[in-house]
Amino acid sequence: MKAIILKSFGGPESFELCDVPKPVPHTGQVLVRVHATSINPLDYQVRRGDYPDLVQLPAITGHDVSGVVEEVGPGVTTFSPGDEVWYTPQIFDGPGSYAEYHVAAESIIGKKPTSLSHLEAASLSLVGGTVWEALIERAALRVGESILVHGGAGGVGHVAIQLAKAMGARVFTTVREANFEFARSLGADVVIDYKKEDYVDAIMRETGGRGVDVVFDTIGGNTLSRSPDTLAQLGRVVTIVDIAQPQNVIEAWGKNASYHFVFTRQNRGKLDELSALIERGQLRPHVGAVYSLADIPLAHARLESPNNGVQGKIAIEVGPSAHFKGTP
After folding, report:
1. What domains sit in the chain, N to C, each tagged with a CATH number?
2. Cβ count near 20 (within 10 Å)
3. Which of 13, 123, 133, 176 is a plausible cystine mate for 285, CB 3.0–4.6 Å?
4. First and final CA of the chain: distance in angstroms?
């Protein structure tokens, strides 16, 4: 089978398209023919060597799969050949999704929502599971509460806006002016151009000085340290950003705030919860660009580039018919 192999840590040129043996499912495992995967910030962090002790080279990386079951191992009872499935491979535990076939444990695989294409499903498995864990399981967002979603036009942010609206929250988000209409189309109630206005001032103005109940941080650094300035009393901050440097969050003391750091865990339950929202029309990923398996280096370079112009996710079409498509 064809696979994109990471030969060394570094830039996008560190990848190479290779022929490798097709994997075989063992007890409790499923072999999936990958139809689509996608690109996440975690993917280029792994490629450039942010986690050298957790990734053994050469490696097949990638963290999203949407495809069709080709073969099941002994003891598998939930899936049969021909089933359409989606999932996030175990992070830092075995080969990833940049390949024509992938083997995974039955316990982390879900039935693909019927209303999503493979490209759409592959764009949602990791970010959807991450947002579900952040907003529902950790921040415990409730009906009638308010939330600030940083980076609302991005791969994670555009899903967070939709999920927060589905939970009945009032949603504030920070985006560039060019993404105002996109953010509003997702359900954002208040859209803040962080290039033209200080978002702390905007939040305090819009909430009458109270602040928001939850901040969802997808940026880190200064954005994380300023989060208490936008919080209401007893507010919660949930961040998905790897904390490489010490952060001063002393202002959180005065707000009786709580902080949650999320590195998502794989399980079928979150996928099933997301599927229910999707089938009710309350959640849909936005695919902003599509590339082929062979062009994953180009896709990495684009996502990593500031001002890349992508709304939502970059998806990867896998298979002999796939070809470079660039920006739709």
Report:
1. 2-126+265-317 (3.90.180.10), 138-261 (3.40.50.720)
2. 16
3. 123
4. 28
The amino acid that residue 215 corresponds to is: V
- How many Cα atoms are found within 13 Å in the side-chain-facing hemisphere of 12? 13
Q: How far is CA 101 from CA 31, 35, 297, in A?
A: 7, 9, 19
Q: Where are the alpha helices (DSSP H) in 16-156?
A: 41-48, 118-122, 125-131
Instruction: Pick the range with the lowest mean pLDDT from 35-49, 83-97, 179-193, 245-259.
Output: 245-259
Torsion 218-224-228-229 (CA) sign: negative
pLDDT in tens, 288-315: 999 999 999 999 999 999 888 899 999 9
Which range among 202-211, 217-226, 272-281 shows the weakest confidence by mean pLDDT? 217-226
Joined tokens for residue 322: 């796939």
**DSSP code at position 220:** -
User: For the purposes of burial, counting CB atoms within 10 Å of the CB of 195, is it exposed (0-12), middle (13-18) or buried (19 or more)?
Assistant: exposed
DSSP code of 269? H
Residue 161's contacts (CB-CB under 8 Å, 6 or more residues apart) are 149, 152, 171, 173, 183, 186, 187, 188
